[in-house]
């Protein structure tokens, strides 16, 4: 029983990491209406940028992490402006957009490996002994991760419900043509969306690296389909659905380790994805016209 | 001289097997519009299942473990490998082909690839984990005993014959009513549905036929090399097949031949001779992957129809062009799926 409760605690940590990532993917999908298969590589960009800022510029770690987050947003914006949006304008076929992002993931992954090699890295944060809270036990880093995710989720909620930008994003997600004819500057909203999606991917990558302590450039790559699982579970393109999906996938994968080897965590996520596609492909919170 | 002959044989076998992979993907993507982002997993399935059917029972004292070990004769084992690959295609199709957007299928194929890779690699009871299978029984060993090149050249003929059969089959399929239905689904599934065709069935057939063909290529690969480990089927390899198809021209099997010659043979082989950088042993493979990824992106930008575009069926038509007609949102005259229109 204690192990079971402990795993619920770890589930909360995994769900926190996943929530950042799946909300970032979902925001972008909602606005641009194609899946970005290079998203897994953005995690690596965030991890390595934060590492580089803290090692070469000797910044305190929180500042390096903040710079890494914004840096990934900028990288995401540059890639969108330089590659993806021109493609979307020129070739509207969904097939080609997916293949282009898929190709982009190969380019980015290998570029990161050329720059940083295949070595394992660690952030310069001191490892503390776990803190016990009730039946749960967290390291300090994990508590920070949960706090970051909670703040980020509230921020995303406020963005979507209170600001002009957020409302414009929701409008574009519902109906692109209607949004454009209502006078929304769809180009600038799309730019902001790519930037925010990149920031969330970078931040997600950094907290993922904090959680697993020692990481490689491609540590985020295998997480890509777990993120997809969370996004599809919640209903693709639905931001609040993505939060819910992240919570469910995070909990299910971690709790499963009470019963089976933790090596099969990802397989559990895959089974959830398959069940969801078979039973309720529109997701827990379906979005109109997306499935 | 014999060294060069052996090398040429290897190049030819590489060319033939990649050609088979590309034709398999062409049936899935080029004919039916199915995005399979893990072509190479089907190759691995074919190869591994051929191996465990043809090899003798695993000798546990040697610390090499694998399932089955049935020691079947190689033609039967070959069939088993091909069927295994087709079965994987069927399973993926069951999950993702029904009523879902193409993104979902792409996600499911990618997820399956990641999963199978981890499962086969981490679990050394299945197919001997990361070290993979080796000393896999090769065919024609009883006739090719004199010289290693003898086996290579017998195999060139063998794989060449299979490639020709696959090629003829794929062309026949393209022109058949079944192939026409597949292409119609690729262009607009709703139209096909409204004509009362069961588009799920046709897409599933394309998925399974393509998987079977990629499985044939996988079996040939392991028959020729005699070994395979997970390092031989990473995501980068899937891209080689995609790049070959897109460069050559999708939905045109002539393009498949040209693409596999240019990308899989010329480009892949040429980069093998670039000297290694001692401090960065992975630099050349990484650069090669980057170039292949860029090649995919650039070919879609500049010539999405490939070097050999698909030959559209031409009908006797009254040239009625209404230049004031309004298109539907999202389709444009030079839309990638109708390259013929841009030339008109």
Taking all Cα atoms into account, the compactness measure Rg of chain B is 21 Å
Low-confidence stretches of chain B: 330-344
Could you tell me how far the N terminus lies from the C terminus of chain B, measured between alpha carbons in angstroms? Answer: 52 Å
Biggest chain pair interface: A-B, 47 and 50 residues
What's the total count of β strands of chain B? 0
Number of helices of chain A: 11
Order of secondary-structure elements of chain B: HHHHHHHHHHHHH
Mean pLDDT of chain A: 89
Structural class of chain B: mainly alpha
**How many helix segments of chain B?**
13
- Count of discrete structural domains of chain B: 1
In CATH, the architecture of chain A is: Orthogonal Bundle
Beta strand % of chain A: under 5%
Radius of gyration of chain A: 19 Å
Indicate the percent of residues in helices of chain B.
55-70%
Mean pLDDT of chain B: 84
**Proper CATH architecture of chain B:** Orthogonal Bundle
Task: Please name the CATH topology of chain A.
Answer: ABC transporter involved in vitamin B12 uptake, BtuC
Structurally, how many domains make up the residues of chain A?
1
User: How many β-strands of chain A, per DSSP?
Assistant: 4
Regions with little confidence, pLDDT below 50 for 5+ residues of chain A: none
